[in-house]
Design goal:
2 copies of one chain form a homodimer. Chain A is an alpha+beta fold. Chain A is built from 3 helices and 10 strands. In chain A, helix 1 packs antiparallel against helix 3. Strand 5 of chain A pairs antiparallel with strand 1 of chain B, so a sheet runs across the interface.
Chain lengths: 140, 140
């Protein structure tokens, strides 16, 4: 079986507010959008932002189901770029969770929540290879 | 800026239980593991399963912070494979959220929650191209 994730879908309350975070904050371009959903073509998979109620209905998830804790990471090319991207994300409606600092395992990173509470780590990790198409390879 | 996500990190309560879901259920192989975290090399990014408390501390997320709703999708090559993978995931500790059926936009899909409540859509979507390396391209 392929070690493959095809889509990450984030449930959102307000498409305009969410779009601003991803389009103005990260500078990403939608590949498709309508009144309910926006898709972004990512590095080997698709990111979707979808009305929360429609997503919950689609997955038949009721409010009393346990919700997992999770984070998404976007890696950048330098320590300075971490601060810059975090500033852009806050200016585009994101909320600071953790100011950037150096974790024990090396590199530099901070966390921002998007307008719907989805956590984004913005990280500089010199050990990880990211090719020109954004494909990321694990390394110690 | 690259349209790039480097890592998806899922917070988990019990590493052994979670490992069983991903290794036996999906049949995926870890690229790294220790007592606190397991990494899987995916299609152009990395999936991490990390002790929930350590993840929450890392992102400075407190319990009262709003948690977003979200789902991850794994696409398979046929309608029959959807049922088969869902059965494997349930046998490996997953919980059924939605039995597989055909959504309005075509294809076939169901939803399983992993042992920590992370929702996985198992989908057959004949419109989407997935190459031999598992790289997924959006298409209508």
């Amino acid at each position: 079986m392929q070690q493959q994730i095809s889509v990450i879908t984030l449930g959102i309350a307000d498409l305009t507010q969410s779009r601003r975070f991803y389009v103005e904050g990260f500078g990403w371009k939608p590949v498709f959008e309508n009144e309910q959903i926006i898709f972004y073509q990512m590095n080997g998979f698709v990111l979707g932002t979808f009305e929360k109620q429609a997503l919950d209905e689609d997955m038949n998830r009721t409010n009393d189901t346990q919700l997992g804790s999770y984070a998404l990471a976007h890696n950048v090319e330098s320590r300075e770029a971490v601060e810059k991207v975090m500033e852009q994300l806050i200016a585009a409606g994101g909320n600071l969770l953790r100011k950037a600092d150096a974790p024990l395992h090396g590199g530099y990173r901070g966390y921002i929540a998007d307008p719907d509470g989805h956590a984004w780590e913005v990280a500089w990790n010199p050990a990880w290879q990211i090719d020109e198409n954004g494909l990321v390879t694990f390394s110690l």
